[in-house]
């Protein structure tokens, strides 16, 4: 089977950095050519760049040395020079050799798809853990691409190797990077330890976790906000959410759950990233129910769904109960909306932005959690039993609380498993 390589190149202008560039793109995946180019344009804009030109190449087989054919490389060099591009972005991953050869032949910086996604991640990481993860992924990606690239290393902050690419300099750079990688790994380990201690504390109360997952831009953060009114960053830029956001919410049955917003998935998510971001995806693995948020107004929603399911498979969570949330129905015509709502088995139709269908969704989450039904019981607990009182307060809904001496009498509605733990305090 012949491989059809499509190499669109966009020349871009990076805001603030007075940088301009051009881009290229890979063989077609399940995504149609146009939608995949569109997605790449969005990624470029999310990275804060402005496109000043595009170049596309159809080729039976990519050139192992330069990806593009030599005629195209010359054409691209001319385009980049006349548009004064500061960076050329390829919607394709480049081997270390291709990157080196292209940088020699072209008048400006060359950035491939993985590097671009890493750059976007770097801009959006908010917590220390997120920032450490991105820097680690960036360095690990750079390492094999160091040879002959002394001068470009200055991009990595800390002014590493701003001099020419002499072998001695390269060795120094490499050692410095290795030291930094080691340091980052240690720091990450420390941050994760703290987080896992916090989680243990949290898990002493069995509040089920519900995680929002989905393709980037599907509307997870918007839905999270609509449900929690938490004011978590929501943005039309891709990968706005990198750090897990958690919030306790109450379902219609009065069951409390922890809702988490997570990083969006994207086609061809670089492997280094999936590992680096595994920590933020731990929330997904810990969850009892997954809400797969989908942009049902997108023409490529089926491809996006397949991509998300692929990542869920990699995370080993495909067997968890999963609810399809068909979001952005406000963008559909009445007719399309009606069809969707009639096909309830496909999922729950909502508009996160307009708060449509959210109650139905919460009822659906409740129904998915029926293994641990909500029960109501009366308890009489000594006030000295702080742990029991705190656990019931966190995981259940309490009413009619009365104090008599050092005893508290209360009615508790909550998951059977939680109430069962304190049956010794049950009041007949
Ligand atoms: N019309 C419409 N737009 C929506 C809806 N939900 C979200 N959006 C928009 O879609 C864009 C992406 O929303 P986010 O909530 O940031 O998406 P996300 O899934 O969290 O994206 P990442 O964090 O990048 O993975 C924003 O511009 C939202 O305003 C909806 O129900 N209707
Ligand atoms: Mg988000």
TrEMBL record:
Region described as Disordered: 151-173
Keywords linked to the UniProt accession: Cytoplasm, GTP-binding, Magnesium, Metal-binding, Nucleotide-binding
Organism, as annotated: Paracidobacterium acidisoli
Binding partners and assembly: Monomer. Associates with the 50S ribosomal subunit.
GO MF, one annotated term: ribosome binding
Cited SUPFAM superfamilies: P-loop containing nucleoside triphosphate hydrolases (SSF52540)
PROSITE patterns: G_HFLX
Positions contributing to Mg(2+) binding: 221, 241
Name of protein: GTPase HflX
Binding site for GTP: 214-221, 239-243, 261-264, 327-330, 351-353
Subcellular location: Cytoplasm
Database matches in CDD domains: HflX
Domain Hflx-type G: 208-373
PANTHER family: GTP-BINDING PROTEIN 6-RELATED (PTHR10229:SF0), GTP-BINDING PROTEIN HFLX (PTHR10229)
Protein's job: GTPase that associates with the 50S ribosomal subunit and may have a role during protein synthesis or ribosome biogenesis.
Principal subcellular localization: cytoplasm
Any one GO cellular component localisation term in the record: cytoplasm
